[in-house]
Amino acid sequence: MKKIIAFNGSPRPKGNTTYMLKHFLDGAISKQAKINKINAYEVNVNSCMGCLRCNLIKKCAKAIDDWENISSKILDSDIIVFSSPIYFHHLTSPLKAILDRFRSFMKVRITETGLKHTAWQKWNKDFVLLLGMGSSNDEDAKPVIELFEYLIKMLGENNNLHIVKRTRLAVSNQINMDINDLEILYSKLGLPIRLAKNDALENSKLLKNCFELGKNLSTF
Ligand SMILES: Cc1cc2nc3c(=O)[nH]c(=O)nc-3n(C[C@H](O)[C@H](O)[C@H](O)COP(=O)(O)O)c2cc1C
Prior knowledge:
Helix content is 38%, strand content 20%. It has helices at 16-29, 54-57, 67-76, 93-101, 142-154, 179-189, 195-217; strands at residues 3-8, 34-39, 79-85, 106-110, 115-119, 126-132, 160-166. Helix 1 (16-29) packs parallel to helix 7 and helix 6 (179-189) crosses helix 7. It is globular, with a radius of gyration of 18 Å. The model has no long low-confidence stretch (mean pLDDT 97). Residues 10, 12, 15-18, 85-89, 132-135, 140, 169-170, 172 line the site of flavin mononucleotide.
């Protein structure tokens, strides 16, 4: 049985990325995965205070919040999911706070040419990014993707990154809209109505892809 920790980074209860995550987790559940779902806006994870004590004591020295509990669940999981809207080319801020606390999973040394990261544990995990953005251009997700490509390498050689991203998502629940509702929305947003038909198809295909990814990664 695969273990999953999934962070929902949308502040909107009917956020598009919330639905992407739901479909991913439905796929995982169909393969009996064990799931810890965490709403990043509800959990109490403080910003990293930069004390750097983790470099010596191998854990966060300031974990007077939910981090201790969450960090042990992360370490115990096979699959780590971050689902997030893109906010100014990045993850939403509660997810960034969680990511900064990943600093406590590794030793960092300054070298002449850059930083050298050594993870305290051996990591062999699947990382999943489920990203939604308003732009019609998925370049807006590039900084997040580059960050995760870097992060998974810092944590070891055997981690994998899986990405599902969708553009042109503005209002809550849009990803579930049929062609008619999407045409009405696009006319309000000043977008060409001709785009609605293909976008409705792409949106429903994407949710199926999320389900299949959850299912496939949860299959031994
Ligand atoms: C504060 C803020 C910043 C945003 N920045 C970007 C951005 O840089 N690029 C982009 O494509 N969309 C941006 N968006 C749009 C959201 O990424 C998009 O609507 C997303 O689908 C929302 O996800 P959700 O429905 O799961 O909440 C931004 C939205 C907000 C509220």
